[in-house]
Each structure stands twice: as C-alpha cells, then as structure tokens.
Specification:
The protein is mainly α and about 120 residues long. About 40% of the residues lie in helices and about 5% in strands. The two termini are about 20 Å apart.
Amino acid sequence: MILTRMEGNLDESISNGQSFQEALDAAKQMGIVEEDDSLDVDGYDAAVKLRALLVVLTSSVESSQSCNGNTIYIPTMDEIPRDSIRYVNREDICHAYANGRKKYRLVASAKLTQNDQAE
C-alpha cells in the first residue's frame, strides 16, 4: 500500500537533473509535501501512518492489546525507527537504476514477532 507520492516525485525530478532542494520545493508547490518538509523527508509521516494502521488493525490506541489471550504490543512513535531521504542525490538514483532498482522510497513496515510484538 502506497501512503505517499512524495518520493516518486523527488526521484523523478532529481534523476532529471534538479537538486534535492529544487525537487522538494516543486513538490511543496504541488501540495504533496508538508509545509514542514522534515515530516515527509525524514520519515515521520510514514511512521505516523504505520502506527495508525497498527492501531486500526488491532482496534486499540493502547500500546498493548489483548487478542485471543495474547498481548500485542504496538510501538510508540519514539520506538519506530525512521530514516531520511534528505541526502539522496542524482548519483544515488542513477546507481539504483543501474542495479535494477527503480525508485527510492521511505518504507514503513511492521511484523508480528514470536512474542506478539509489532516491530
């Protein structure tokens, strides 16, 4: 499930020769990047959406939820690791294309561990 369009737009703009900042400014003008771009670029928006999905899927806003006798732990925002695409440049994107990858993406993922914890 794709929850944001921002990375695809930046990827295309940078691969076409724009600087990261130019591509980011254009994405802001199109309304696909938050005014505070750190929310999108530094992974916070993806982490918020991931946690929201975990809350919806477990029907709980609590950090721990009982399900069939098991306790499912939902990580807090501070516990969700985040990464940034702020320093991705044209060379990074060209290298990715050369190695068979097509896009840079901020990926938010979670899995249920053997201890019934989302990580």
